[in-house]
Write a structure and sequence with these properties.
The complex is a heterodimer. By secondary structure, chain A is of the alpha/beta class. Chain A is 38% helix and 26% strand. Chain B is mainly α. Classes of the chains: A alpha/beta, B mainly alpha. Chains A and B meet through α2, β6, α3 and α5 of A and α7 and α8 of B.
Chain lengths: 259, 232
Amino acid sequence: MPPKIATDLVLSAQDIHKSFGAQEVLKGITLGARNHDVISILGTSGSGKSTFLRCLNCLEVPNSGSVAVHGEEIVFRNGRIGDQRQIERLRRHLGMVFQQFNLWTHRTVLENVMEGPVQVKRMPKAEARDLAEGLLARVGLADRMGHYPAMLSGGQQQRVAIARALAMEPDVILFDEPTSALDPELVGEVLKVMQDLAAEGRTMIVVTHEMAFARDVSTEVVFLNEGRIAEQGPPEKLFDHPETEVFARFISKTRRDFA
Amino acid sequence: MSLIESLSTNLPKLLDGAETTLILTGLGAALAAVFSPGLALIRLFGPTPAKMLLRAYISFVRGTPLLAQLFLVFYGSGQFRAELTGLGLWSFFRDPFNCAVLVFVINSCAYQTEILRGGIEAVPPGEIEAARAIGMTRARVLARVIFPHAYRIAWPALGNEVILLMKASALASIVTVFDLMGRTRQIFSRSFEFSVYFEAAALYLLITVVFVFLWRQIERRLTRHMRRTQGS
């Protein structure tokens, strides 16, 4: 029997294990998100943070453990997908923003945002168009709706990707290093949008290297090291009083890098 | 006989042949295009025995002359006349035109499947992930992301394949189909007028030029998102 899942969690992952071949990348991670939580996941490269995020919406299938969203639990055994339909249902509750944006390059900005509501939720086109136009206006791209992604800057593309995720009205939005592929001067515009989302109470799980964002915006910080959670807690506590040496080293190193 | 005279007497027959060539090629390429997407998917994601079977079929088609394949079906079917009659298929195989279409479908389908397989493999994986991440079903991911990209990528190579098929369709004349080449040979055998071959060549060229133009128009539409100019 898997452990009982607390009911106030919108998203919870229990004891997630994931291996690639002989290498065990995740060695049992348990994490839950309540409504309005903004959880930043930090870690050195290779710590498994992106893999863990991708396990949450089954882009990587965990070897064992379980994920529960919206009261529906998926238990993984032997790294197999049991019920493809169940996974598709789970994904509809989770938005995802990728490091490389991954916009559909053959569709316009507006079509990118309309795609999910129309193709997955079967929303009438006119309604989806209104929704998409509103979301694009909110991320500051009302004047770019007819453009194709190739004509936009990285920051603009990432804002479209955020609007695309919002269009599905997800319970939780997963961000996989959303600013890591951006030129430094474009990072701010994306972080600003994310900050606004946090302020309006969106539930977010963010894998990031932006220490300032983790510290100032998130409600909880998780530090992964070698496939395990090394530290976890409110940002002010973690950043000011790191308990483990690895995390202390990690903060001091990033401080030096950004000094 | 002057060229004008020669053309005016030959042209009706040549045009009739050209029409057959177009139908032969069009039917062959189009029917092959119906089967190739499914076969490309099996070739990539199907169960191992099905994959092996497809690879054997593709190697056979690509590794043997089209003329040999045509003879195999046209003369080979004659060997099984009794059996084919029993199955009610003899009336189909008796007609050389049908045999030619069948062979062209089998031949072009192998090439198109390989071309499309390459196209599917070149689809940006991140865009597929993005589609899966919003909860699209597999069928929807194929229809909305994978095939639109795969056809765009494969488009020039597919056009090439159709042109090659069109020219190779002249082989049908050898099994007595009166396509453009068949008509040309017929005219030459009666008049020994060498210029008819030039006239035929000009018609083949004309067909190709028009086809290339139309194909490129479609390609421009398929790649409109890749130009860095203002969108509509």
